[in-house]
Amino acid sequence: MTQSRFLFCAKTDCLHKMTVWYKSLAKQGKTLYDEVARGNFMKLTLHIGTQHEEEVVVYARHKSALTDAIEQLVNSENEPLMGYKNETAIPLRMTDIYCFTVENDRVFACTDKEKLLTKTRLYKIEERLPCNFVKINQSCIVNIATIARFDTGLTGALSVTLKNGFSDYVSRRNLKTVKERMGLKK
What we know:
By secondary structure, the protein is an alpha+beta fold.
């Protein structure tokens, strides 16, 4: 049996946000120990083995973004997202997805080689996605790990090109979030 201990930050909901938050602490002259003493972290003990049934139990002082993210993660594991190709249902693995995009009022999951139709609305998919996905415009959510490059147009518009060749623009509304998540702007 393997046992691991982690600290999860209650002020953040993913590793990237925690890294940015940790750097901001350093600029303010605060330490990680100060935040642990204030109760801004949650302790996690992970037991890996076959002796027990899989179960998630969370003890928290109050409901937070972290408890919501844990609940969302556990619930999304129970209901796999399905993609359809020629009437064949295929379970989608988030690591294989480059982006989710809306075309002609239908939502598609784009992988390296194909587009699979999903029968779930984009906003429902967005609620279930891990923090390595970012919404770039009203009709597209991309996997940050699959971004090949950013291009700027003459008007200053930013477009994203993925490793599979798919390209779409970043809306002004989502520009700040995309830049923060990519570490381009604080």
